[in-house]
Predict the structure.
Amino acid sequence: MAYIEGHARDQALLLPASVEDYVSADNAVRFIDAFVEDLDLGEAGFLRTRPKATGRPGYSPRDMLKLYLYGYLNRVRSSRRLETEATRNLELIWLLRGLRPDFKTIADFRRDNRSAFKAVFRAFMVLCRKLDLFGRELLAVDGTRLKAVNSRTRNFTKARLDKYVKSADERLEKYLAQLDDADRGEEAGTTRRSEALAAKIARVREQRQVSEAMLEQLKASGESQISLTDPDARAMAAHPKVGVGYNAQVAVDAKHKLIVEQHVTNAGSDLGFLAETAGAAKDLLGVDRIDVVADMGYYMGEDIAACERAGITPYVARPQRGTAVGDGRFPKERFRYDEAADCYHCPGNQRLDTRYRWLQGGHIIVQYSNPRACGGCELKAQCARGSFRRITRWEGEAVLDRMATRLAVRPEILNIRRETVEHPFGSIKQWMNQGAFLMRGLDKVRGEFSLTALTYNLRRAINLVGVQGLIRAVQA
Ligand code: SF4
């Protein structure tokens, strides 16, 4: 048996007569073309949507947007690679009708129109809604950390700078003492050694000055760290693999795992982003009520209360925090709150009443205890660290109790959360290879992530309804 052979390179071939013949009916470029042609780019915020009356004609923003959508969909994000692909890739040649913008024009378009990409993401989301691709019943909110164009060595926290200044002082003291010794010495080679030490001292002093200047800068700005390459990027302390990066928040509809809302921040934690992210998604889905599930990184009383006020029913597992948990003593969940009597019932069947009240962070905190009962309790070793157990309660904590009751009835919702959010994050980082930003600055990475989330949704929608189904929806 022989292998399948290709044709001879010098053989004359009857190739298809037009580029159109190379692009099948179900090729994604046909949808990109129809979708972008249908957009109101001026309303979306794109620049130069009308050609200039004079001067050399520029490229249409429609063609440039098509190029980027194709690139992000096919893991080609760099402007230089897009320039190359536009000259040799038949799908792109079809999409751009043979246009060949240079890499600078391509890069400038993404930079200048970074704020408009979110409107394109939302326009596609509206199309998905028209196709009934959203369940509009349950959202999963989560955040993922994506690398910034800033290495760990170019990021400085106050602690790191303080440590450096201290170590510089120690080294300076050591070098100066060595220099004194060398100056006193009379043996041959002393001059050369003195010169080397003086050079070292100058270098350390210079680096110390730079660190001091950065510390002053931190003090003046009130920030906790400085990133030299991308000033907006932050060290993601809890995510060592990412190092310095950004936090992309998404709300994913559970029906087909499509991203409904997304935004990027440089906050290291997810705390406080639940109501904001789920609220925007609920408005976009046009529903009066919706359920939202998130991991314990979102467990924050005020945020949970804000969800309830906005018509969002939250499901967030309670994190096991506090000294009692750390010491292996009874966690707070073992104490049952009695709303009617405003007291707690402890594992020893005793009643803990209000003892103190104070204001903390604008909220009233109430402490409950029963020192007399604890004094003679057999469970004390498992429960109290001091002479009696104290339980504190935020005045609005009823919202957390209601959520705990809901979760007890519907525990499987936490597994649905994992399956729902892991799909987009896994696809974006692994399959789409977009776990790191190419641009610098919060505004620019927000634009970049809008393209990433849009093309993730586009890939999902093509799998669900096909290219022709999407084109029909655009034209309907
Ligand atoms: S130590 Fe106090 S709070 Fe704890 S179980 Fe005993 S009586 Fe209840």
Observations:
- Residues 25 and 361 are 60 Å apart (CA to CA).
